[in-house]
């Protein structure tokens, strides 16, 4: 949590310019989000609706979800011919190191659009930053009606215990995440960390949401119970190959690769359900899995030599915008080595995708806080 942040600003390697996959994930989950908002409003008038987007990052996606939620409320207002929500209190959460400045700078234009397109005055929509970790309490008791989080909960609060870079034994040599060759102790350490983190997340939100409040979460997962399945870990496998190729040339220390384990976990539906049911304050209204292309589906023709390369490079840029801060902090490499790493990674990904159309699995769930 101290090192992870998406690439800041609006430059070529920024998250703002390389978040098409996450935008696709938001649009895939939109019908579930809309359904949850409408069901919550059904027969309900909320004077001041508390909404939180957890892991909002920066860039075009940060406010797009909020805009969608407001559109859904406005559509319900029109349908019923009365105002169901008088004002919105919107909390944008992310870690302390997130580029909040970038979001705040885009707020005047956002408020202008609210007025022009939705007829909403500034006085009826209060957007606030809420820095901190969602693995713990962020908001006062019973202050929220709707919680949303997209593409964030697959990040763990820390590298699983026993796999940290200062651990005595290197249990997952040559790998960055769970892989087919990882020992069972590595798989167990990841699952335990996920269980601890996710249960703390659910427990914290159960204090903050009012009874009947909704939560729509979407994050990377897997469709098989096997944690070594390709669609949950192969992007890391290929990144490890690119790092290894630089290590062979002495441009990265191989020991650094052996001591890195990503604070990431792609759970299956059963693992999620277990934690929600154990905690006991939410009902699961929906839990669905969607396949997402590694490039967000932006380019379909991957068979021409140029097309193949461009898909790989696009995927590499998307992954770089997310993981560069962690790699930089752990490997401590010069910028030219980082550039070279992601060129190699793009080539490796391009070659892989020309043979196998591996996809991410994105899990979307809608939960209701019990009465
Ligand atoms: C890939 S971005 C997703 C951003 C945005 N929701 C979207 O869909 O484009 C993941 C975000 O989760 C944030 N994040 C990771 N762990 C977090 C934590 N424990 N608490 C709050 N935010 C966290 C990261 O800092 C990052 O900005």
TrEMBL record:
GO molecular function: metal ion binding; methyltransferase activity
Any one Gene Ontology BP term: methylation
Pfam name, any one: Methyltransf_7
Protein origin, superkingdom: Eukaryota
Sorted UniProt keywords: Magnesium, Metal-binding, Methyltransferase, Transferase
Protein name as annotated: Jasmonate O-methyltransferase
InterPro entries documented for this protein: MeTrfase_7, MeTrfase_capping, SAM-dependent_MTases_sf
Kinase is among the record's keywords: no
């Amino acid at each position: 949590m101290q090192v992870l942040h998406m690439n800041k600003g609006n430059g070529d390697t920024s998250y703002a310019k390389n978040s098409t996959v996450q935008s696709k994930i938001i649009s895939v989950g939109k019908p579930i989000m809309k359904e949850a908002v409408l069901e919550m409003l059904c027969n309900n008038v909320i004077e001041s609706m508390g909404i939180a987007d957890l892991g909002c990052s920066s860039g075009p996606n940060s406010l797009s979800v909020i805009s969608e939620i407001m559109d859904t409320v406005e559509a319900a207002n029109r349908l019923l011919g009365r105002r169901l929500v008088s004002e919105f209190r919107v909390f944008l959460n992310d870690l302390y190191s997130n580029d909040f400045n970038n979001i705040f700078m885009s707020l005047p234009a956002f408020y202008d659009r609210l007025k022009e397109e939705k007829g909403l005055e500034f006085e009826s929509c209060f957007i606030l930053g809420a820095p901190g970790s969602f693995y713990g309490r962020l908001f006062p008791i019973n202050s929220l009606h709707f919680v949303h989080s997209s593409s964030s909960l697959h990040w763990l609060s820390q590298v699983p215990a026993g796999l940290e870079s200062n651990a005595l034994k290197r249990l997952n040599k040559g790998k960055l995440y769970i892989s087919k060759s990882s020992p069972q102790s590595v798989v167990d350490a990841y699952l335990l960390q996920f269980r601890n983190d996710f249960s703390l997340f659910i427990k914290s939100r159960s204090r903050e949401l009012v009874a009947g409040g909704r939560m729509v979460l979407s994050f990377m997962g897997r469709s098989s119970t096997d944690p070594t399945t390709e669609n949950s870990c192969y992007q890391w496998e290929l990144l490890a190959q690119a790092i290894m190729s630089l290590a062979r040339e002495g441009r990265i220390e191989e020991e650094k690769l052996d001591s890195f384990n990503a604070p990431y976990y792609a759970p299956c539906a059963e693992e999620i359900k277990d934690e929600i049911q154990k905690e006991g304050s939410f009902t699961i209204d929906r839990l669905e899995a969607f396949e997402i292309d590694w490039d967000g589906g932006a380019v379909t023709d991957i068979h021409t030599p140029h097309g193949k390369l461009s898909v790989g490079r696009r995927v590499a840029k998307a992954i770089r915008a997310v993981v560069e801060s962690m790699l930089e902090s752990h490997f401590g490499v010069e910028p030219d080595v980082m550039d070279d790493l992601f060129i190699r990674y793009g080539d490796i990904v391009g070659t892989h995708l020309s043979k196998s159309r591996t996809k991410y699995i994105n899990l979307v769930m809608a939960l209701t806080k019990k009465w």
